[in-house]
Predict the 3D structure of the following.
Amino acid sequence: MNSFTPSPDHAGAFRSALGLFTTGVAIVTTATDRGPLAMTVNSFTSVSLDPPLILWCPAKVSARHDGFLAAKNFAVHLLCDDQLEVARKFARQGEDFSGIDITIDSHGVPHINPCLTRFDCTTENTFDGGDHSIVLGRVQRVTMHEGSPLAFHGGHFGGFSPER
């Protein structure tokens, strides 16, 4: 067992501990003055059913941070287990959509096709969250497809096998 008090001296250990919580993998997309923008995230969660609210948290050090905070509309795409390369692509950069099947919605937001689930959102509010910002989104539309989710745990991608 390893115990510590989170501090700048233990930042790596704290990050590793947080990484032991298995999450889904999502890509958030929006439209900016420079064109479409995307970011791979695992900081996505539901907040409320009524009203329908979700949140996600972009890092302030990201070159894409300000583009997402300025966005009025965005889409969250939950990825299928066969979309690992899409996740990796948008983890590295966010402006090159070449090789990705997308459609553009009426707000200019790119939709990645297919994905497990897509939440089309308007920004409800943003909050300071330390070295991240918290983006609260109101879900306007949900689109779901068949498939299995891409998961992230301990710094690694993988799949999910339900108990049978």
About this structure: The chain has a mean pLDDT of 93. The longest strand covers residues 117-129.
